Amino acid sequence: MLLPQASQCEILIVDDDEECLDEYAEMIEALGYPCQKTTSPGHALRMIADNPRIGIVLADFRMPLMDGVTMLEELSARFAALRPIVAIIITGDGSLDLAVQAMRSNAIDFLTKPVGRSALAASLRRAATRWTQLVGQFNLAKMLGRGGLAASLTPIPAAANREVRDPTAEELQVFVRSIIKSRQSRSAFLDTSLFADPAWDILLELASAGLKDKAVPPSSVCAATQVPFTTALRYVRQLVAAGLVRRWQDPKDKRRTLLALESATLEAITQYLSSMWRSHGVPVG
């Protein structure tokens, strides 16, 4: 199952001071973010485990039993392999040492009390942007069918007597089109429903366009999937929601929309395809 994009994630506020808790919740909701709150770090960890939509955690540093930094360390230990969690630390002590400690515990930001609306809004924008990037990478790794992004991009050993080098942009474009053509040609011999993978077909089609720095309309992408148009559109929506693909209105024609891979997605797929290309190598002599 793919993770949601940043606009669909919830913010969890953790502070043992109920007055501060209510104040932060009011500001966050006024900014248009869905949020939950708790005074207990232990309860917060259980809430995160039970609710996959919680993606941003706003935690006070000084709390009894478990401080904010310790809670961040627990978040990393429990959830790093399962889903991205972006954390922001709030404290009344704005010392440099404390800021460094928070950043070492993977906090994306460090806010000093009293927290103003503008500072909180800017911090949440940074957190949402980072969440989108992490979710896109996480979802792409899952779609590549490997244990993680790094593993999915491990170069494949080249065949004997072949030179190993990176492909040129033109060679990679030809390679991607050959993969797409090969996948489409299967329909002449087998029932496509046996091996349909619309999400990967869409990503390949958008990667081909992205290598040429082009965007394409949904109709072109859907045509490459060999599944019903409505089914293909559903996969497009899922990829957009997962943060892998972006969609916007064509500025030259307001009646249609355009699609392109998010930059992190295009980079990862390019590395993955380059690794596949290197496995074939270049004949020497």
Characterize the structure shown.
- By secondary structure, the protein is α/β, with parallel strands linked by helices.
- The protein has 2 domains: about 140 residues, Rossmann fold; about 120 residues, Winged helix-like DNA-binding domain superfamily/Winged helix DNA-binding domain (Arc Repressor Mutant, subunit A, Orthogonal Bundle).
- The chain is about 50% helix and about 15% strand.
- It is built from 11 helices and 9 strands.
- The strands form 3 sheets. A 5-stranded parallel beta sheet has the order 2-1-3-4-5, with helices on both faces.
- β4, α4 and β5 form a beta-alpha-beta unit.
- α2 runs parallel beside α3.
- The longest helix is centred in the middle third of the chain and has 27 residues.
- It is elongated.
